[in-house]
Specification:
The chain is an alpha/beta fold. The protein folds into two domains: about 180 residues, P-loop containing nucleotide triphosphate hydrolases (Rossmann fold); about 90 residues. Helices cover about 40% and strands about 20% of the residues. It has a six-stranded mixed sheet, sandwiched between helices. A two-stranded antiparallel sheet has the order 4-5. The longest helix has 15 residues. The protein is elongated. It starts with 12 loop residues before the first strand and ends with a helix. About 35% of the residues are buried. Bound molecules: adenosine-5'-diphosphate (ADP). The site of adenosine-5'-diphosphate has 18 residues, from α2, α7 and α9.
Length: about 280
Amino acid sequence: MDTLIKKSSTNTENTMTSLTGDIPFYKPLGKEEEVFKHAYGCRIPVLLKGPTGTGKTRFVGYVAHKLNRPLITISCHEETSSTDLIGRFIIKGAETIWMDGPLTKAVKIGAILYLDEIAEARPDVIVAIHSLTDHRKELYLDKLGETIKAHKDFMLVASFNPGYQKGFKELKPSTRQRFVALSFNYPSPKDEAEILVNETQLEMSVAKKLVGIANRIRNLTELGLTETVSTRLLVDAAKLIHSGLPKRLAVRVAVVEPLTDDLEITESLADLCDLMI
Ligand code: ADP
């Protein structure tokens, strides 16, 4: 009982999604749902790999709903520690009480726990989840000196962006090999246009133009952009257009500007988009 912290919040953003509400819209892009359901049946952790904005988070929300499980999402960053996930002692009035972290809670109630961008988290997070990813299926609460068995419905899901991590934050093979891995990538033009229309009620003809722009920019590998146009950026552009912002301006602020700060590249991409929208 060595940690006394005078605040009840953790420095990790996490959300719990209950089962009420409509099932999130998700356009299947391959066999991901079938694989996930089988992995869940076998309680094998799943790693979702792929660039940002390609539907990984949406997919987890969708399958959690389909499987009728609560979903706890943790957005990992370089400060995310095992204490943030497992729990801590807090001071409440004159008392010191233990507060479960989101991982402990998920393990106890049998939720799906989604560690978004797991490679960003501190190494002790990876250590903490190891015993949950093998036959032991248990979690060690170091500050309490207790080990708890995971609820039979508990499932661990993590996401990882291989391109973005290049050169620095890699996931070790010993960690990766504890997961079944599903690759996510940009949808086919037809699927992506359908996603835009479904997400924003934009006209199909304009959605197709946005998808054309995205694919053109995705093919410009010589620009050396760290990340290229994601479906998320297109959804934002589509929303702005649908809400009445002029198309060229919407594409500039939602697609071009977020990609780069290089003025020359910004201008040439904006010119290209102006011709295509
Ligand atoms: P990631 O978790 O991979 O960064 P998200 O799941 O947050 O990406 O996806 C970003 C947005 O793109 C979603 O909010 C959704 O609007 C849209 N999107 C991407 N792929 C799909 C898909 N297959 N079906 C429905 N929406 C999608």
